[in-house]
From TrEMBL:
Single GO MF annotation: glutamine-fructose-6-phosphate transaminase (isomerizing) activity
Record-annotated active site: K350
Keyword vocabulary terms for this entry: Aminotransferase, Cytoplasm, Glutamine amidotransferase, Repeat, Transferase
GO cellular component, one term: cytoplasm
Compartments (UniProt record): Cytoplasm
SIS domain segment(s): 39-177, 204-345
Protein name: Glutamine--fructose-6-phosphate aminotransferase [isomerizing]
Reaction(s) catalysed by this chain's protein: D-fructose 6-phosphate + L-glutamine = D-glucosamine 6-phosphate + L-glutamate
Species for this entry: Halobium salinum
Subunit structure as annotated in this protein's UniProt entry: Homodimer.
GO biological process, any: carbohydrate metabolic process
EC number: 2.6.1.16
Gene: glmS
């Protein structure tokens, strides 16, 4: 049941600290060299990694491809429905990873079959034991998020990001390995709990419902978070939402920005990336857009943001997971205020078994 929550989605959002703990159990220690893992044990470094996925899982794949490249592994993310049409280099040393919480998404299964025909090795990253993806791939990495009933993917997305961080660390070359990430993954469930406990997303939802459109922006690893923030928002609120790479705003989307289009930006870390996103925040603020910044406090954002959604400081690879929790709660609260059928949005199914 819903354990007292009005919706499965809210229950599942709140279960994330536990899901994250289950996902890292045994694996994060393995990175320290002590425990084996059924998904990645003995997996050699491939010549390249190709991710195939749809929807929210594709956003996870974009994050995974960035992390792998930073770890010194060639990696690309493909929309599963486009993979067949995309000529791309595949050898017997190529690893194709299907990121699919259900393990039953037809587009993803079909891309994995094409990968197999092309001679690649395949890995399913899935939440469902015995799913088609798990049965058909050479290897399975189980997310262990626990059952997800709401059509909107929440805890499976967060655990996908963790799984992909673990994969990146597993495949990293000597230069790419990052012991700080191991510590950050261990600390993540507590930080996630803190975000859930202290989130002001409900107040922000109250302030900004009934606007014309909602835009989400981020750079680097926060770009997939912007895309995911917008997808979740449109999926359950039925309001128009779009995610953009922050730097792309002035190449077109800025024409849409008005005083009735709130812009949600992720600004975290003290590097150039955050400073540049902050510059984009100033651009939209100058066009009167209401601005909400998800901030870890490392940039001075108060002067530009109408509202701040705070997250604790953490490793660059775990910040996106924490930032996304704020966007999940925001989408949930706006949808709830609008009286939407949050767990079963119109026209959508939990797993999409047709191409
Ligand atoms: O089961 P999968 O991860 O393969 O599903 C892929 C998408 O259909 C899914 O993520 C969809 O975008 C969600 N409903 C988003 O919340």
């Amino acid at each position: 049941g819903k354990s007292g929550y009005d919706h499965y989605m809210l229950k599942e959002i709140n279960e994330q600290p536990l899901s994250l703990r289950q996902c890292t159990r045994g694996r994060v220690d393995e990175l320290a060299g002590t425990v084996g893992d059924e998904g990645l044990d003995g997996l050699d470094r491939p010549d390249r990694v190709q991710f195939v996925a749809c929807g929210t899982s594709y956003h996870a794949a974009l994050y995974g491809a960035s992390l792998l490249r930073a770890a010194g592994v060639q990696a690309d993310a493909y929309l599963a429905s486009e993979y067949a049409m995309t000529p791309c280099p595949v050898t017997s040393e190529t690893l194709v990873v299907g990121v699919t919480q259900s393990g039953e998404t037809a587009d993803t299964l079909s891309a994995l079959r094409i990968a197999d025909d092309r001679g690649a090795r395949t890995l399913a990253m899935t939440n469902v034991v015995g799913s088609s993806a798990a049965r058909e791939c050479d290897r399975t990495f189980l997310l262990r998020a626990g059952p997800e009933i709401g059509v909107a993917a929440t805890k499976t997305f967060s655990t996908q990001l963790v799984g992909l961080a673990v994969l990146a660390e597993h495949l990293a070359d000597a230069e790419g390995a990052d012991p700080d990430l191991v510590t950050a993954l261990r600390d993540l469930p507590d930080l996630a709990q803190q975000v859930l406990d202290e989130s002001r997303a409900a107040e922000v939802a109250e302030e900004f419902d009934g606007m014309d459109a909602y835009f989400f922006i981020g750079r680097g690893l926060h770009y997939p978070v912007a895309l995911e923030g917008a997808l979740k928002f449109k999926e359950i609120t039925y309001e128009h939402a779009e995610g953009f790479a922050a730097g792309e705003l002035k190449h077109g989307p800025l024409a849409l920005v008005t005083g009735r289009t709130p812009v949600f930006a992720v600004v975290a870390g003290d590097g150039a990336l955050a400073r540049k996103t902050l510059a984009n925040v100033k651009e939209v603020e100058a066009r009167d857009a209401p601005v909400v910044v998800v901030s870890d406090g490392s940039q001075e954002v108060a002067g530009y943001a109408d509202r701040v959604l705070e997250i604790p400081e953490s490793h660059p690879a775990t910040v996106p997971i924490l930032a996304n929790l704020q966007f999940q709660l925001l989408a949930y609260h706006v949808a709830d205020r609008l009286g939407r059928p949050i767990d079963k949005p119109r026209n959508l199914a939990k797993s999409v078994t047709v191409e």
